[in-house]
Amino acid sequence: MEGVIHIPEGERGHIRVFSLDMRPEQARFLREPGALAQVLGIDDIDLNHVEIFPLSDLEELGLGGYLTEGCGIRAGDVAADREALDKLEGHVLLLRSHAFQGAETRLTPAEQIHHIATYAEPDTKWSAQKVTSESARPQPRLSPRAARRKARRIGGTITVVVLVLIFLGLLLLVT
Length: 175
What we know:
Blueprint: E1 5-7, E2 14-20, H1 24-29, H2 35-40, E3 50-54, H3 62-70, H4 75-79, H5 82-87, E4 91-96, E5 105-107, E6 113-120, H6 144-174
Antiparallel strand pairs: 1-5, 2-4, 2-6, 3-4
């Protein structure tokens, strides 16, 4: 099937770039709930992981620069498509994998939406030394009732100590 873009189930870390061959008001309308899903031929899409903007907003940075510096795509991955990216005009659509909420999806974009490229975001390398200090170990927590009881005991003890000191001070003044 030509024009169908398959997103596998559980896909993460990809950005798909589309050019939008439409008037600015139509491109702005795609930000409305349900509009983008309709022109992509799907039921639902998470708009929090979608970017639609005019390329003129990028000024001298350009789309290639935005992808490398703004989205973290490796410069070598973008270099092969730099010429095509620089020729784009109008609005652009960036779809991150999270927009599909991990579901297998088949996009059938409307004829005004043209897939330009798909880029993989670099994987995050999580590493750290094991924390072995005493403060990093789980600490037992008191129930709210036990915490209030403990606070009352401490408050009562402090009150008794202060009253005893006042009483002793008065006794010393009298004698």
